Amino acid sequence: MDVLFSRFTTAQDVKQWIKEQAQSLGFADCGFLSVHHPLFQQQIEPLKRWLDKGYEGQLQFMHNHHHLRVHPEQLVAGAKTIISVRMDYLTQAPTPRSVTDNDRPNHAIIARYARGRDYHKTMRSRLKQLALKIENMIPEWQHLDICSEADFVFRPFSDSAPIFERPIADAVGLGWTGKHTLLLNKQAGSFFVLGELFISLELPDDEPISSHCGSCRACIDICPTQAIVAPYELNAAACISYLTIEHKGPIDIKYRRAIGNRVFGCDDCQLICPWNRYANITPVADFSPRHQLDDISLLALWQWQESEFMTYTQGSPLRRTGYLNFLRNIAIGLGNANASLEVITQLKSKLGVHDAMLDEHIHWAIAEQHIKLNPLDS
Ligand code: B12
Ligand code: SF4
Ligand code: SF4
Q1: Residues 197, 200, 201, 204: is their CA dihedral positive or negative?
Q2: What residue ranges do the domains of the chain occupy?
Q3: Which family does it belong to (predicted)?
């Protein structure tokens, strides 16, 4: 390649080209950060304080591999730069600033990111495609001081390793960290997921953007379980997303009414956020809802046999809960559903069928139904 005729005169040109390729692959945006950036060291103390408060619940993996969080270069030998990407996932714009999910208590609410194909797979396969495009271009970039002599090294991640994903995306300006602890920005709100591509090219860092939460605290006030204990401080163990997806076994009674009809994850703190008026619809078909998961009744889900659960959740994030915890969540939803003898009959039909944990949730749900049917008896 004749250097004089190259369209790449600086590393910024390379970054711009990578950004365009990322967008052509369905990523909304990307940014660049050195694996030696000081943020990795800076983030570890707040993480330890968070763990000291017991906010992680059963998320044991949050205790592991802290040295790799501080030294991401050890995660991928030869990596120099992290490309942080974000991908929008909404397939339908929700009503701005309102949590209408709760208006239909007999319907099951599944978090919007989880209604289609598992994003981890979508992200990682597209990040790999991005890496291969970059690798093909390396001969064109030899005149820039960004490539080492060694072979090109890359590795994609999305929620799959001890990486400070949100702080990295914050540092490269993909958004600011909201008081609900998620990343958001003025052009796209927060309904997007994050991923990273580690590469061995050396590219200059991008810069963070300023925060625009101001005096707003809508996310804190709307949270059904008061899991956002202070701005930027989430007690994961109290978050409905944690309780319905990550937590194994019985769910504390104190949370059950607040969980309402949310059977997998929770979007309330995002739905109420004013910046989500600007949330974008995803161009990625993988997020399209499967098996009517955007509009399905609690009773319809309650009928799923284990074999159906395994079939319907193939390649879906819903697999993560496992069948019995999924039924546990639906039982809570049915307890919170409108009073009906049909609901009680359906709840009873699974008593004694699975395990004591599920039975206890079914008994709770039946009792809740009775309170609503016969308020004077309680
Ligand atoms: C563990 C985890 C959870 C836990 C805990 C969430 C949490 N906020 O910590 C649970 C299961 C509850 C959860 C829920 C959800 N999650 Co989650 N989760 C993660 C995971 C694996 C790690 C997050 C983490 O490190 N938490 C530990 C704490 C210590 O980190 P932190 O909240 O960022 O805390 C820092 C801040 O508080 C900061 N801080 C303290 N004071 C201040 C002050 C200021 C001014 C600032 C700026 C910062 C700041 O310092 C702390 C230390 O770093 C990441 C993926 C990853 N590998 O990073 C996804 C991730 C954060 N989750 C994601 C999503 C989509 C969700 C849900 C929306 C899913 C849903 N719809 O149900 C909910 C949202 C709940 C919420 N309000 O956060 C996305 C977020 C995308 C985005 N736009 O930001 C991520 C990045 C996954 C991904 N690859 O896309 N999640
Ligand atoms: S996801 Fe739901 S429960 Fe968790 S912090 Fe947000 S509003 Fe609260
Ligand atoms: S609801 Fe308000 S405080 Fe919460 S993230 Fe959005 S702008 Fe920030």
Answers
A1: positive
A2: 3-294
A3: Belongs to the QueG family.
Residues 56-79: tens digit of each pLDDT: 999 999 999 999 999 999 999 999
Q: Tell me if 201 sits within 8 A of 154, measured CB to CB.
A: no
Is the beta carbon of 171 within 6 A of some atom in ligand 1? Answer: no
Parallel/antiparallel/unpaired status of strands 81-88 and 192-199 = antiparallel
pLDDT in tens, 110-165: 999 999 999 999 999 999 999 999 999 999 999 998 987 778 999 999 998 999 99
The two three-digit tokens of residue 172, written as one number: 């490269």
Please list the active-site residues. Answer: 159
**Atom 1 of ligand 2: nearest residue by CA position:** 266
The answer to whether 173 and 206 have CB atoms below 8 angstroms apart is yes
Identify whether the C-beta of residue 15 lies closer than 8 Å to the C-beta of residue 204.
yes
Task: Say yes or no: CB of residue 196 within 6 Å of ligand 2.
Answer: no
Query: How far is ligand 2, taken at its centre, from the CA of residue 179, in Å?
Result: 11
Q: What is the pLDDT of residue 378?
A: 59
Q: Whose CA is nearest to atom 6 of ligand 2?
A: 269
What is the distance in A from the centroid of ligand 1 to the CA of 70?
A: 17
| Structure-token pair, residue 281 | 């619809």
Q: Which atom of ligand 2 is nearest to the CA of 226?
A: 8
CA of 7 to the centre of ligand 2 (A): 47
What does the pLDDT read at residue 222? 98
pLDDT score recorded for residue 89: 98
C-beta of residue 216 within 8 angstroms of C-beta of residue 305: no
pLDDT score at 3: 54
Give the number of whichever ligand sits closest to the CA of residue 216. 3
* Overall size of the chain counted in residues: 378
Closest CA to 260 of 113, 370, 371, 365: 365
pLDDT less than 50: residues of the chain: 1
273 labelled as ligand-binding?
A: yes
Q: Return the closest-CA partner of residue 354 out of 329, 334, 328, 330.
A: 328
Spacing of C-alpha 367 from chain mean position: 33
